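Give me structure tokens for this 350-residue protein.
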Amino acid sequence: MMHYIVTFMPYFKKIVIKELKKIDENLNIITEFTPEIILIETSKTQKDFTNDLLESNPIFIKHIAPASKIIPSLKTKDEVKKLLPNIVEELVSIDKGTLFSVQTRIVVGKSFGLDYNSKDIEVILGEHFCEDEKRGEPFFSDKELLNNDDVNIISVFITPQNTYLGFSKAKENLNFHDNEARICSHKGKREVSRAENKLKEAISKFSLKLEGGKALDIGAAPGGWTKVLVDNGYFVIAVDPAELFDNVKCLKEVTHLKSKIEDLKFENEFDIIVNDMNLEPADSARVMVNLHKSLKENAKCVLTVKLPFNPEKGILEAKEVLKDYYEILNIKNLFHNRQEVTMLLKKKNV
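Here you go.
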């Protein structure tokens, strides 16, 4: 039997279970560590489970990591240094020059008296697996939301009773980071509003190439998404009846139209449109349909769809409205999303 650590937003737990059951209908939930982290068990091999997982492309599972070996949790840093590297050696295969990352998450660590933290584990294992010329190259991403599907991930998940160890490719975990809160909690990551990190994450997650040009930001106030677009080389028309923050509206690349998007018309102007309006799913989708002719050929859009009541129904309603005008490239409940998902769209030529 194979075990996996799965993380998700608690609000979407029932849908996450459905997503998991589509991969293996006989899958079992073994433990709920926290409202957002569970341990599951499947009879499928790691290869088969991973292939089916990637093919299904789940929306609401944030991160999933194999727990191929389970050991009693080590209580001291000295024990970790002495024992853990040799235990992990049994799981991993890291050749010379291979990129690897150690990702550690400790659940309620302070309450059971550990004298080490997640960073200690990552340093100890990182040094062990790159200690000589025959070893790998560490890949660090502790301050930015980065993605690299080819990085080998050593996963360490620690509870008061057990430590769960696994080895996989980053793409097999669905998300490069096992605990994005660590990365996103760094000071200085937000210039305008919390929402700007939502767009930054979407750019990273969807590997969206932003090459500058002209952008439309709908529902732009107070200007977080507008600032991100400017930082990526765009001249931005920011549409919102509300005010933008002073440090955004003063930018020479920003034109603020204090209007409702329904009252404006544009023709084949934009290289990208972003939309974080607080509307019903079908209404948000209709706004994008009405802007279809405002986009250049093959242009991309980033759209958040709010899901306060019936998430599955809301997504279906939005997809139905969009289907004739946009190719839906991806849909994800990102770390910075709350009761919503982010869609990546591409204009169809109709």
